[in-house]
Amino acid sequence: MIMRVNGIIIKGIGGFYYVKASHNVYECKARGVFRKEGVTPTIGDRVTVEADGEKGSIVEIMPRTSYLLRPPVANIDTMLIVIAAAEPSPNLAVADKMLVNAEISGIKPAVCINKTDLAESDEIKDAYVKAGYEVIEVSAEKNEGIDTLRTFLKGKSTAFAGLSGVGKSSLLSLITDDDLETGAVSEKIRRGRHTTRHVELFELADGGYVMDTPGFSQLEVEGIRAEDLQRYFPEMADCDGKCRFRGCAHINEPDCAVKDKLADGKIASSRYESYCELYEKLKQTKEWLIK
Questions:
Q1: What pLDDT shows up at residue 17?
Q2: Which of 96, 102, 115, 265 is spaced 20 to 30 Å from 163 by Cα?
Q3: Domain boundaries, the chain
Q4: Which residue has the higher pLDDT, 113 or 214?
Q5: Whole-prediction pTM value?
Q6: DSSP string for residues in 193-249
């Protein structure tokens, strides 16, 4: 007997999509009409399925609230940027690039500092609190701060992003109670071995979904003009129109509101350095490469 159910795509492998609907998971193929319309079902899509037993066909894809291109995933509410306090040493320039990419994708980001048992994290936390981001401090090894993290994740679809070795898989294992494959940190180079095979949503007991985003940390900031970059640094938002020069780049100009905030300690120097580095890279981008 065929019945129609609504659900969410939690995994896609080899042309099959696995749709979670209530307490069931249906193995589905997508109707050919989507291919004709140039639409590809994506992890995180909310869909309608015509199911017969445990198998079915995806017949409708609901409008998306957000979309990541690489890795392809839809309807993510929050991007959680995971930074290690140590081992590996925190790379704030890469973290800032990931935050900007999340902002560009229309996904609200937050910051999670892991391995707080290994090093002090106050300076990192201060930089992102000043930027207006929610910051959660945890230690997966000591199981500290995990309840706070669970509370933050409740009811949301959250993508975890970060460099290899920062402990994303360990955190995901703790909050999902799934023994996800993790990569040991090399004693020689103190960098993680990347082990994630494919993108998959994991359902949380208290409601919501989490997923890893392999490759997201390698993405360059693209698709925007250098002069628009300040829009994606929240701590600079209130400086718009307050500089002496219209169109101020906030780098070499005098009487700059952003540099005034930096001098007053209201913007972290690491964040400003990231802004300058990204600005210079975007200035070199050819106009036809910008969407």
A1: 94
A2: 265
A3: 3-61, 67-218, 226-289
A4: 113
A5: 0.85
A6: PP---S-B-EE-TTS-EEEE-TTGGGPPP-SS-GGGGGGG-GGGGGGTT-SSSTT--
| Number of Cα atoms under 13 Å in the Cβ half of residue 96 | 25
Please give the Cα distance from 205 to 187 (Å, whole number). 35
Alpha-carbon distance of 91 to 138, in angstroms, equals 17
Alpha-carbon span 248 to 258, nearest angstrom: 9
CATH code of the region 226-289:
1.10.40.50
pLDDT tens profile 105-154? 889 999 999 999 999 999 999 999 999 999 999 999 999 999 999 999 99
Q: How many CA atoms lie within 13 A of 203 on its CB side?
A: 14
- The CATH number that domain 3-61 falls under is 2.40.50.140
Closest CA to 223 of 269, 184, 281: 281
* CATH number 3.40.50.300 given to 67-218: yes
Rounded to whole angstroms, the Cα distance separating 181 from 7 reads 26
